[in-house]
Q: What sequence folds into this?
C-alpha cells in the first residue's frame, strides 16, 4: 500500500523475487557493501577463465544453486557481463541489452552488467582485464569481471564488477532459492 520510492525494493516479479539495493535502508534485506577481491593482480586468489569478448565458458558450480525453483549445478560465464545457469547449450551472446527473459540470452540469465565488455583482448577497446571465478569455500561462488574494457571506443575506461551466488543450504531463504549479490 502506498507509492514506492527510491528507498523501496523493486518487485516482486511473477515468481516472488525482489531486488534490493543499498538505498533500501528500511529493509533488513538491503545489501551491505562488501567487496570480495579475487583478482590476483589486486591481492585476490581467483582463477582466470581466459574469456575474451563474447566468449562463453561452461563450468561446474561448487554447490547446487536453486533459482526460480529450479536447481542448477553448472554455470556458463560470458565475457559480456552475464551468466547463464545450467550451462550449455550456448546462447546468442550478444551484448545487446533487452528485457529478461530474452530470446538472445540463456533461459536462466543473471546479468550484473550486460554490455559490450572486452576482457583479455588488448587489441580491442583496451580490454586488458579478465574474468575470474572463485569458490570461497563457505557457500559463496564469485564471478568477477576485473578491469574489463567497455565499448569499442572506450578511451581507456574500464569496469570492475562481481556476482556472488549464495548456497541456499548454507544461507537459507524463505523460498528455498539462492540469494544473488
A:
Amino acid at each position: 500500500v502506498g507509492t514506492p520510492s527510491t528507498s523501496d525494493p523493486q518487485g516482486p516479479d511473477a515468481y516472488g523475487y525482489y531486488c534490493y539495493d543499498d538505498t533500501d535502508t528500511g529493509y533488513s534485506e538491503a545489501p551491505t557493501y562488501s567487496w570480495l577481491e579475487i583478482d590476483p593482480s589486486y591481492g585476490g586468489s581467483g582463477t582466470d577463465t581466459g574469456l575474451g569478448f563474447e566468449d562463453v565458458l561452461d563450468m561446474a558450480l561448487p554447490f547446487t544453486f536453486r533459482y526460480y525453483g529450479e536447481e542448477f549445478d553448472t554455470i556458463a560465464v560470458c565475457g559480456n557481463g552475464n551468466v547463464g545457469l545450467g550451462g550449455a547449450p550456448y546462447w546468442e551472446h550478444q551484448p545487446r541489452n533487452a528485457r529478461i527473459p530474452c530470446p538472445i540470452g540463456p533461459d536462466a540469465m543473471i546479468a550484473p552488467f550486460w554490455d559490450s565488455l572486452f576482457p583479455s583482448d588488448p587489441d580491442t577497446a583496451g580490454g586488458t582485464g579478465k574474468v575470474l571465478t572463485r569458490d570461497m569455500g563457505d557457500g559463496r561462488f564469485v564471478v568477477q569481471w576485473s578491469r574489463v574494457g567497455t565499448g569499442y571506443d572506450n578511451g581507456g575506461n574500464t569496469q570492475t564488477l562481481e556476482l556472488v551466488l549464495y548456497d541456499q543450504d548454507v544461507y537459507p531463504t524463505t523460498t528455498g532459492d539462492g540469494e544473488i549479490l
